[in-house]
Amino acid sequence: MGVTRQKHAKKIMGFYKNNFQFREPFQVLLDGTFCQAALRNKIQIREQLPGYLDGAAQLCTTRCVIKELESLGKALYGAKLIAQRFQVRNCSHHKNPVSGSACLLSMIEDGNPHHFFIATQDQDLSNKVKRKPGIPLLFIIQNTMVLDKPSPKSLAFVQKLQTNQLVPEHQKQSIVELKEKEGLVKQEGEKRRKRKRAGGPNPLSCLKKKKKKTQEGQEPSAEKKKRRKRKRNRVKAEALQSVQNNEGE
User: Fold this and answer.
1) At a CB cut-off of 8 Å and minimum separation 6, what does 59 contact?
2) pLDDT digit string, tens, across residues 174-194
3) One Pfam family for this entry, by name (predicted)?
């Protein structure tokens, strides 16, 4: 295995691990065309693929793929024997089998929740797989297995994900409601109100003003008392003078 090809595969695997959560053992769905190409090119899939993907791989197929190979007769008898060695995954076509390509496409619907790789030589199937984001594609060229580079659909999906454009509106609303439920929004409001109160007047300055007003208010009262006292003294003095004048007469 060439060093350049191994580095190329490692880089692509990093992309799928980081952005689409692919983990070991890697689930690889194979169709009849891939098994036939491996047989013709003397490729040992079970032995060689884990080393190429740099991790444990679980090879699997479907009943529809095996049924299709059986229907094609002796020409693909060897490919059928290879496919029968792999795990058979349940599909939704128990009673009415469909073509291998149609079956594999049904296995990666709804965002490829089982994180399947697709291994095929079928060009039409490959093109349909590339229209779905997050699905690694394997094929055989010149006696070697090749992991295809991420499709434009996968690259665009990751770019949108990184810019947070894939969060639906109802999920954004749920996030806001969850914050309100946990009291996060209320705490932010309280912080703002506290800042406003901190900008008010100094309480000590208010107390000083009140004392000043009290002192100023006491001054007129003291002055009035003095006037009253002088008036009383004047009245007493006039009364005493009047008495003395009467006695002299």
Assistant:
1) 28, 30, 45, 46, 49, 85, 86, 87
2) 677 777 777 765 554 555 555
3) Fcf1
